[in-house]
Structures are given as C-alpha cells and as structure tokens.
Request: fold
Amino acid sequence: MRQSLVIANWKLNGDLNLIETMVSGLMASATELTSDVVICPPAIYISALRDAISTAASTAASISIGAQNCSENSSGAFTGEIAPAMLAEVGCEYVIVGHSERRSIFHESDAIIANKVNAVQQAGLTPVLCVGESLEQRENNETIDVVTAQIKAATVDVDSTKLVIAYEPVWAIGTGKTATAEQAQEVHHAIRTYLRSCMPNGDTIALLYDGSVKADNAAQLFAQDDIDGGLIGGASLNTDEFRAICSAVKG
Ligand code: PGA
Reply:
C-alpha cells in the first residue's frame, strides 16, 4: 500500500497569519482530507507551525511538518545553514531535496543532492527528492533518461523505505503550464518501472506530481495509477484551494 501525500511548498512566501489560517482551515475539514498532509514553510516559521498544529490537534487531521532545504553537513562553520538534525529537533519529518529551484538558482549538483538525501535520512527524516526535465530536454525526448539519471545519482546508499520522489517537469513549475495527466502518468510509470528494477520496495515508494497543480486539475492528475499525490507551490498559499487539492487525492 503506497502512502497518499500532498506537500505544500511555500517557498519564500507566507507569514504567521497564513500558518494560523492554514492549520485551522485544514483541521476544520479534517474528515474531507484523503491524504497525509505536509506543510513546508520557510524554516523560520517551523516552530510556529509546530505550535499551531499542537494547539489545534484535537481533531482527526494529521498535518506533518517539512523543510524546503537543509545542509548536507551536520555541524561546523557553515554560516546560514541548517542541519537535518536541527530540523528534526523542532518537529520536521520531511525535507525537500533537489528542487529545480535549488538546482538552477543555487547550483546544487547531483553530488550535493545525494549528500543531502543521505544526511536527511541519517537524521531520521524522509527526503522528498525532486527530479525533472527542462523544456529543451523534453523536446529532445530525453525526459525519461534525465529523471532516471537524477534518481540514480541521488540514491546511492539510500534507505528506499524512507524516501518520497516528486516528478517536476521544470517547464511546469510556477508557469501555469501543467503536464497533461497522460504526460505525467507516462513519466511516473517510467519512474515506477525504474524503481522496481533497482530497489526492493520500488512498488511502495510514494511518487508525487509537482508543477502548477491547482484545485481544478488535481483530481485528474491524482487519478492516474502511478501518481500518489502532489507537491504544491503557488496553490498551497490559499487555504481553500490547498484544502480542495488535499481532498482530491484518491483515498
Ligand atoms: P507550483 O510550484 O505549484 O507553483 O508550480 C511547485 C513547486 O515548485 O514545488
């Protein structure tokens, strides 16, 4: 049985008010939610999110906390960095690793991403590994090769029982362009086939779709056989829209 999961990636957005309204909005509709829900706010707000969840946590909804990034190092002279164990200490369970914005804007290489995946797992957390192709790579029919190479590079020595993978066609991130449900399923299926071939539990790793998911396209994407939920950027900043997306996952 694979985990159904919707993860909010707030990026450099949100504030204390959004934390309060999002947590109370999700808790109020706990019975409608068909997936596990994770919120990844900017790191400075993680403790406030934890407090808001524990204050509201009398109902059925379970909201987990994630981080958008972490250091590959556990301690030392790395100004501005946050170690995975520090994230664990303040209540995080997941860390997004290898997001296309980290790869392109912050020049994170496959080697750095592999180190982060291992560091996250060593701290007892679950990495959400993002992989995806550029428009040019898609047009050159390189999509499957690119995503499988990214997974291979990032999962050396990985514990595959504690891993989530998000497929993000880079051309669909924040652009309003979404892969069609068929395009997304085709890549998810190829990823699933690859995981089955090289990991003993390849069948049970949760695979999320990531790229301009909205309330009005979520159900169609999530209905696909190999799509277990989503990683949601812009649409996770609006409580009603995010709640609708969390309720669109097949139960
Ligand atoms: P988007 O972002 O939903 O705004 O396209 C998703 C992401 O980058 O994780």
Notes: The pocket of 2-phosphoglycolic acid is lined by residues 9, 173-174, 210-213, 231-235 (CB under 6 Å). The chain has a mean pLDDT of 94.
